[in-house]
Amino acid sequence: MSEFRYKRLTEVKEKVLEHKQRELERALTAVNEVANRIEHIRKEIDDNFNDMMARCLTGKEFSVVTGYLSYLDGRKVDLLQEKTKRENRVDGLRAELLALTIELKMLEKLKMKDLAALKKAHNKKDQKAMDDLALRNERT
User: Fold this and answer.
1) CB 30, CB 82: distance < 8 Å
2) Which residue has the higher pLDDT, 55 or 28?
């Protein structure tokens, strides 16, 4: 009976662990995508800034380029905040995975202790039966 109980608990915990691992993979992919977008924006800012410095611009062009650079800076800040949130989510998922792994190990240890206690009780019962049988044989 206890074997079924531990087996079922272990199965449930393993399924939760697999689900969390898949969720972690998706979260890591999302963090990488945001990091790639941030890098793309940094490159675009550098390119526009270098282009602005390389040639003479009229006032209108300068205004448009600086406005666009400001927009890109704002977008980069938003993406950095999003990346921080996603990294925090990844850290949380890793902590959950660690906790689940520890739970699984504890369940396995409890299962082994329970099986050892069950085996010990069974051996005691067998020994008592053997002792009773030996006493009966001596009396006869």
Assistant:
1) no
2) 28
Q: pLDDT category, 48, cuts 50, 70, 90? A: confident
Number of neighbours of residue 27 by Cβ within 10 angstroms: 19
For residue 30, tell me if it sits in a domain. yes
- CA separation for the pair 109, 104 (Å, rounded): 9
Number of domains in the chain: 1
Please indicate, yes or no, whether the overall pTM of this predicted structure exceeds 0.70.
yes
Domain that holds residue 87: 2-111
